[in-house]
Amino acid sequence: MGGNTVVSEKLKRYSSDNRQLMIMLGVIAGMFIILSLTVNNFCTARNLTNLLQQIAPIAVMSTGATYVLAIGGMDISNPAVMAASAVVGVYFMTTMGGNLVVGALVIVLVASLLGLINGFAIAKLKMVPMVVTLSMMTIGTGLATILSGTRGLPILPASFSNFLNKYAVIVILLVVVAVFDFVLTGTKFGRMLYYIGNNAKTAKISGIDSENLIMFTYTISGFCAGIAGVINTASIATARANMGPQSQILDIISAAVIGGVSLNGGSGRVRDAALGAVLIVGLTNVMNLLGVSDYYTTLVKGGIVIGAMGIASFRGHLAAKKGA
């Protein structure tokens, strides 16, 4: 009896600590059951791996967004940074005759540099995150447009896409989510980010180097955008300025918010944001299959974000009321 009680208590504690995970898995399971019953061959290995390949760029960029949101920041430049870095990398690999492996590294390094610039402007120059990242979005789009030109960039050798096939992309996705989730929730570095998000002034008084941590966090966001750029580049075997549309930021932030990441900072997990990406991309695919206009799809996504924020706010209000 005693052993059963201990196990029961552990299960209750796990369920309480991972409530958001349980909710997300339940909703995803429900969505997949409905789709398997209504869409022919939906639950085939081929279709599911294709779906994960589509989810990967959004989930990876949502990883970076989770870190930024955890410190109470905001980064709306991810899609543009992804496109700009991808165009620079492909330009290096095709026009300049660069090595494919080095070209992939160039994509990640350029994106990280753009993220670092965001972080420097916000942390050191005390500029407003929304204004800085909006400016970076414009710069990234402009850079990608200039380099890709009107005719676009040449196609990459098939070996690039063959190496970074959908199975490699799925592995990259799982590794990125697992590593960054562990760093955020299981290390001192991650705890300091949460402290900054909860109260930046208190964190600074406590001796936390807030400025450098904020700068590094935006660099991580850029790094994740670069990984997404590599994935997208392999998918289409080239890069274009329009591969990072401004509307994509809604998917990224939606995934994080649906995953329980607070826009006010101080909470959230990469794991749950990635599951949020599964829901968002899955919803988009379903609405496309139903022939629903993109305008209505965007409307639904916006409504989901507002609803998720409302639920989070209500829970926070109840928690504060109980603690009073």
Automatic annotation (TrEMBL):
Gene Ontology CC terms: plasma membrane
Subcellular localization(s) per the UniProt record: Cell membrane
Keywords: Cell membrane, Membrane, Transmembrane, Transmembrane helix
Top-rank taxon: Bacteria
MF terms in GO: transmembrane transporter activity
Major place of residence: membrane
Transmembrane segments: 21-39, 51-69, 100-121, 128-147, 167-184, 213-237, 249-266, 273-292, 298-318
UniProt-listed PANTHER family: ABC TRANSPORTER PERMEASE PROTEIN YPHD-RELATED-RELATED
Name of the molecule in the record: Ribose transport system permease protein
Organism per entry: [Clostridium] aminophilum
